[in-house]
Design a protein that fits this description.
There is one protein chain. This protein is α+β, with helices and mostly antiparallel strands. It has one domain. Helices cover 31% and strands 44% of the residues. The protein has 1 helix and 10 strands; from the N terminus they run ββαββββββββ. It has one helix spanning 17-71; strands at 2-4, 7-9, 74-77, 81-89, 95-108, 113-119, 128-133, 136-142, 148-159, 162-173. The strands form 3 sheets. It has a 5-stranded antiparallel sheet, with helices on one face. Strands 8-9-10 form a 3-stranded antiparallel sheet, with helices on one face. Strands 1-2 form a two-stranded antiparallel sheet. A hairpin with an 8-residue loop joins β6 and β7.
Length: 177
């Protein structure tokens, strides 16, 4: 110890309690900011994922419906189903004259499933039952035009307690008429 007038100086080693409290407080503020940003980023990621799933379901279903609709010769519908009549094909993909297959899309509102059934009437297509999309909430098939069908699909995906909705609509013109 050194004596300097009325004051005693002690060689200080380390930090004072005030300095430690200030640094701890600043660290706590920084951690709160980082945690808040991470939480917001997580919510955005969940939202993007949920919306992406809805769009993927709708796009997949609409792509298949459009593909089948373009080759159809006729279409009939009810409130929950669409039946497309398409030409039967041979092993080379060429249409068989006088033979047709049916593709039926059925929507089950209780399960939210849109299902496609292929019923061959000849040619090389085989019987097929296929789930086209899950999470579908509403389907509208408008076959009032003799040359086209208007299709509207709605879907909902639940992700981490959040609901993500999507709607997709298109008009498919028949090419084989």
């Amino acid at each position: 110890m050194k004596r300097d007038g009325a004051r005693t100086q002690i060689a200080a080693r380390g930090f004072t309690l005030t300095e430690l409290l200030m640094v701890s407080g600043l660290g706590l503020v920084l951690m709160t900011i980082i945690l808040g940003a991470t939480n917001i980023s997580s919510q955005v990621l969940v939202a993007l994922h949920g919306q992406g799933v809805v769009q993927m379901q709708l796009n997949t279903a609409m792509s298949l419906l459009s593909q089948d609709g373009r080759i159809a010769t006729t279409a009939t519908s009810t409130a929950t189903s669409l039946t497309l009549t398409v030409p039967s094909i041979d092993v080379n993909g060429a249409p068989l004259i006088g033979m047709s297959d049916t593709f039926t899309y059925d929507f089950n509102a209780a399960t939210g499933i849109l299902q496609r059934t292929v019923n061959p009437g000849g040619g090389v297509r085989e019987n097929l039952v296929q789930v086209v999309a899950h999470g579908i909430t509403q389907v509208t098939f408008d076959t009032s035009s003799p040359r086209a069908v208007t299709i509207t699909l709605s879907a909902r995906q639940m992700e981490s307690g959040y609901a993500f909705d999507g709607v997709l609509s298109t008009q498919v013109a028949f090419r084989n008429i």
